[in-house]
């Protein structure tokens, strides 16, 4: 077969630089060590700063580097796997759940979530914010959207705002018989609020995991979890695809 046009395209300069930088990280830097500034690195490797930034961004996406506010770019620690969705037959907030409830407010969900829930545009639902940590570091932030019809007994319960009300919503949700769930994963960018929760910069690459929970023949709740893309990997096993995250 003849050579395709793509096969004749030379390797981008930043991609070659990424390989060189990766080797330097292995041989010259320790985990947590702060890298020299961009000007110094660009001068050392004889490249433009724009090329250097592309290489650094790729290494961050691959989990080799971390960029932290007020600190700079540091060498990332090795990944430690933490299973996501290990309790396929349990509601959020069950005993096996590894998430921490943070807050609960009445908000109108995004249009895509409203369609999954079958609620009208602009209709408010219980929005539970949760955080997940491993080794003391935040690895994921979640918004769990629960329509009032899924927790009808909540109106008679006087729960204080914040984490207490979030836990109450979760307990009421568990009164339903869970019939199943499905999950979708896609690449996205961190919103400002999620970035703050995850100690990332706004716009940093993240994995968005959307889970629908089914009860009584309908969608009872939708969870949208934002995972740090630099600390996540997909593994394949007998149970199918499993998403792992690391801090």
TrEMBL record:
Annotated ranges, domain HTH gntR-type: 11-78
One Pfam annotation reads GntR
Q: Which residues form a coiled coil?
A: none
Q: Which residues cross the membrane?
A: none
Q: What Gene3D superfamilies does its record include?
A: Chorismate lyase-like, Winged helix-like DNA-binding domain superfamily/Winged helix DNA-binding domain
Record keywords, A-Z: DNA-binding, Transcription, Transcription regulation
**PANTHER family, from UniProt?**
GNTR-FAMILY TRANSCRIPTIONAL REGULATOR, MANNOSYL-D-GLYCERATE TRANSPORT/METABOLISM SYSTEM REPRESSOR MNGR-RELATED
| Protein name listed in UniProt | GntR family transcriptional regulator
